[in-house]
# Entry
Amino acid sequence: DTEVTQTPKHLVMGMTNKKSLKCEQHMGHRAMYWYKQKAKKPPELMFVYSYEKLSINESVPSRFSPECPNSSLLNLHLHALQPEDSALYLCASSQDPGQGFREQYFGPGTRLTVT
Amino acid sequence: RKEVEQDPGPFNVPEGATVAFNCTYSNSASQSFFWYRQDCRKEPKLLMSVYSSGNEDGRFTAQLNRASQYISLLIRDSKLSDSATYLCVVNEGGGFKTIFGAGTRLFVKA
# Structure
């Protein structure tokens, strides 16, 4: 089973709202990722968690706040977003990175629109 | 120079054709390489990992050329369902940082 689930599928929020994106995997993967993808562009890495600790923050604005409550769950908390933050937000996971980088498996994404 | 470069295409090919994509990378310390496919408004799906010895999965063959710093994907006997964007993904130095190429768009026509 290589399934990563994400909720919600679609989200429309105003610039003053607070919302959260959720991601879950049950593959026993110990690395989880958030990506942002704009139309006709490749995914851009935002955050990486390894063993529930933040390993990479690609200089993402603080209005995006990641959280990894346990090895299966990854959240992305959103606050005071801008219209240019509208995009597809993808979660991914991969196996234990200790033996070299492994392939990532992506969830279906949350399509976010900021009005 | 971009870290990972792909010809954006589009490649328009008839069913049954053989088509090849290349992807070049700039960091010689890159260690892991992958091809993903992405359908319109869907998530990327892993197509193949690319090994030093090359690998084949049915109609798909991937190869790595470390000396020239490129990877390739060959699709034989193209099907309509192969129409998608093909993303080259490179992992640098064994850490978590992965770089996606901009993708190559393939249209297979009847």
Q: What stands out?
A: Chain B has a mean pLDDT of 93. The interface with chain A takes residues 31-32, 34, 41-46, 49, 87, 91, 94-98, 100-103 of chain B (CB under 8 Å). The CA atoms of residues 7 and 104 of chain B lie 6 Å apart. The longest strand of chain B covers residues 30-38.
